[in-house]
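ok, trying the design again with the full structure, not the truncated one.
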């Protein structure tokens, strides 16, 4: 009986630990997944301007999501008539 009880206790402790670890790990895992899936979006621009930015640029973050245009590369942005931002300086 004691063995059974301690096994159940162990199982409870383990599942609690897995839950805690899982919760602790998931934001990082999600961040990595987002970075990996975000590799196709290298630069962003606004439909109302002809400037492209790094997605991290303050100007890029002010773009209205409904006007957001994404580019897979600098060449892609230039092919669509965009020029690099003078603040975040993406490659030309
Ligand atoms: Zn910028």
């Amino acid at each position: 009986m004691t063995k059974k009880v301690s096994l159940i206790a162990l199982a409870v402790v383990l599942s609690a630990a897995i839950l805690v670890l899982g919760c602790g790990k998931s934001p990082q895992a999600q961040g990595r997944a987002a970075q990996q899936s975000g590799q196709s979006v290298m630069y962003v621009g606004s439909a109302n301007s002809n400037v492209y930015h790094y997605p991290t640029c303050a100007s890029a973050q002010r773009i209205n999501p409904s006007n957001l245009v994404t580019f897979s590369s600098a060449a892609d942005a230039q092919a669509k008539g965009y020029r690099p931002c003078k603040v975040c300086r993406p490659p030309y």
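Keeping the full-length input from now on. Residues 53, 57, 59-60, 85, 87-88 surround zinc ion (CB under 6 Å).
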